[in-house]
């Protein structure tokens, strides 16, 4: 009986930790950190920040697109940041900014949709 209660308690802790990690990777903390990294990368002309932002954008963009049954083009958002980082790497700062603008507009649209509910 005691062993069964102990395993149930451990399962509860594991579920809480997994939920916490899911919130960090898919929720607003990931979105905010991604936007901050992308802005830092664009302002400093450093492609590494943009690559980090693109990698961090994958979980929440796939979640927003309804993965695995993809229903919206939101799963392509990280590709905009990867393209921006490539352009920044090649020294095309203005084009990098222009490619990153749709990403920021999509996040702004998401913010307005959430605020309107």
What does this 3D model show about the protein?
The chain has one domain (2-116). 83% of the residues lie in helices and 0% in strands. The mean pLDDT is 86. It has helices spanning 2-26, 28-44, 47-64, 77-89, 93-116. It is built from 5 helices and no strands. It is an all-alpha fold and 117 residues long. Helix 1 (2-26) packs parallel to helix 2, helix 2 (28-44) packs antiparallel against helix 3 (47-64) and helix 3 runs antiparallel to helix 4 (77-89). It starts with a helix and ends with a helix.
Task: Provide keyphrases for this structure.
single chain, 117 residues, mainly alpha, 5 helices
Q: In total, how many beta strands?
A: 0
**Helix/strand order, N-terminal first:** HHHHH
Q: Helices and strands: which structural class? A: mainly alpha
Measured between the Cα atoms of the first and last residue, the distance is 46 Å
Give unreliable regions as ranges. none
The best one-word shape is globular
Give me the Rg, rounded.
18 Å
Strand coverage percent: under 5%
Number of helices: 5
Percent helix: over 70%
Q: How many domains make up the coordinates? A: 1
Mean pLDDT comes to 86
Largest sheet: none
Question: How is this fold's topology laid out?
Answer:
Elements (H helix, E strand, L loop, with lengths): L1 H25 L1 H17 L2 H18 L12 H13 L3 H24 L1
Helix pairs in contact: 1-2, 2-3, 2-5, 3-4, 4-5
């Amino acid at each position: 009986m005691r062993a069964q209660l102990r395993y149930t308690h451990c399962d509860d802790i594991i579920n809480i930790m997994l939920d916490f990690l899911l919130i960090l990777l898919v929720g607003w903390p990931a979105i905010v950190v991604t936007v901050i990294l992308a802005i830092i990368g664009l302002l400093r002309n450093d492609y590494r920040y943009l690559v980090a932002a693109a990698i961090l954008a994958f979980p929440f963009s796939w979640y927003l697109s309804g993965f695995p049954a993809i229903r919206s083009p939101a799963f392509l958002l990280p590709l905009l940041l990867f393209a921006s980082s490539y352009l920044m790497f090649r020294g095309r700062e203005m084009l990098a900014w222009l490619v990153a603008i749709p990403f920021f507009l999509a996040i702004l649209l998401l913010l307005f949709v959430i605020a309107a509910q």
